Give the backbone structure.
Amino acid sequence: MSSPFIPYQTKDDLNRESQFINFLSKKWKFDYKKLGDFSVFDFECSRDGKTVAFVEVKNYFGSVSKYPTYICTVQDVDHGLKLTEETGLPAFLVVKWPECIGYLRLTHNNYFKRKSGQRNRNDPRDYDTMVYLIPLEEFKMIEGFEYD
């Protein structure tokens, strides 16, 4: 019997994620803990041993100027809002585009919503996924990071 979880993350993906969170932790001066393979969000961030935020990191390999919005699953955004509601701590979506990083504190889900999805992995769980189209103007942009 096959596993219900299909691991799509490669070693390269995990290496990029590690470089990305290391950059952010130095820039914003926090320690971090990976939340686990089955967690919706990637990291719990802390200072002086106290949790201060949650971060979901994403890589987008197309140019930031290609589209006026960033597509993010409803699950990611709504889970970030739920974390904030339950803990009182901020949740951030942080996206690495080739030319910059954009970050967004998740405070609402009043975005245009539609079905999207991918079929390249032959996984029915990817078909007809509900996504939000988040306007790029909502992201704060920073530069100064490139993968090794």
